[in-house]
Amino acid sequence: MSLVVSGLVAGHGKVPVVRGLDLAVPGGTVLALLGPNGAGKSTVMLTLAGLLPRLGGEVRVGDRSLPSGNPGRTNKSGLVLVPDSRALFGGLTVAETLSLSEREGGVTSAEVSDLFPALRKRWKVKAAALSGGEQQMLAVARALVQKPGVLLIDEMSMGLAPVIVEGLLPVVRDIADSTGAAVILVEQHVALALEVADEAMVLVHGAVTLRGTAAELRKSPEVLRGAYFGGDTAA
Ligand SMILES: Nc1ncnc2c1ncn2[C@@H]1O[C@H](COP(=O)(O)OP(=O)(O)OP(=O)(O)O)[C@@H](O)[C@H]1O
User: In this entry, which stretches build a coiled coil (predicted)?
Assistant: First the structure.
């Protein structure tokens, strides 16, 4: 399923953080949304998910235009957010967490354990007792069982050792390839994100300073570095 965002204005209260953002993510592809702290990445993700009301613009999932500030309807339309907080219920086991979110046609428990073998042995363990990496796997798995057409993953690697991140990010690529979901990945590990993404975009102070294919940007680390420091606006 595709995601098309036009003229998005997003912020907290009435104060815009991001003004007039346009982006399109075709089904089966991964967009890496990059940028320094405070750029507005999480604000964009929360707004797309309907957890913050839109201050302007349009969001389309497939041929459907999403309402503003309606997380329930947005989720039902197939857009699923994995928030940076992971937002797991600590008292529920892995099995309970997944079975509560399962939807017809979503990834099955057997497929979850193939994607994340580390979770296989932890099925009966409460979320609160999992390691940070296992919790992140569970947060992504919980999104996958909902059959997302659009999957938004905010800072999957927060607080995780690089070796764990190296293992997790390729799963994101597999998900886009195997389910046809459009994926936006907010990620601080830029080089790793560019390994799995198709396209990338750098946001600084709410404005796009660079867009390109991940392949192009992998070859031009100096251009990427310039964009992080607020280089030419290329929106
Ligand atoms: N709850 C809030 N209320 C008011 N302003 C907020 C709130 N959360 C974030 N902001 C502001 O919005 C701006 C963008 O923050 P946001 O969290 O979207 O950035 P980010 O790119 O996700 O950064 P990080 O990588 O640090 O998470 C910042 O100036 C921040 O101070």
Answer: none
The ranges assigned to domains in the chain are: 3-84+149-228
Query: In the prediction, which pLDDT does 230 show?
Result: 64
- Evaluate whether 176 touches 185 at the Cβ level (below 8 Å): no
* β-pair type (64-65, 15-25): unpaired
* CA dist., res. 152 & res. 80, Å (int): 6
* Average pLDDT for the chain: 92
CA gap 189, 179 in Å, rounded: 24
Q: Give the whole-angstrom CA distance, residue 20 versus residue 7.
A: 4
CATH architecture of 3-84+149-228: 3-Layer(aba) Sandwich (3.40)
- How many C-alpha atoms does 10 have within 13 Å on its Cβ side? 28
Cα distances (angstroms) measured from residue 102 to each of 99, 121, 148, 235? 5, 20, 11, 38
Instruction: Name the residue of 8, 12, 48 to mutate for ligand 1: max ligand atoms within 8 A of Cβ.
Output: 12
DSSP H/E element including 33: strand 30-34
> Terminal CA-to-CA distance of the chain, rounded, Å?
24
Q: For this complex, say whether ipTM is above 0.85.
A: yes
Q: Identify which of 43, 155, 201, 205 to mutate to test ligand 1's pocket (most ligand atoms within 8 A of the CB).
A: 43
pLDDT of residue 235: 47
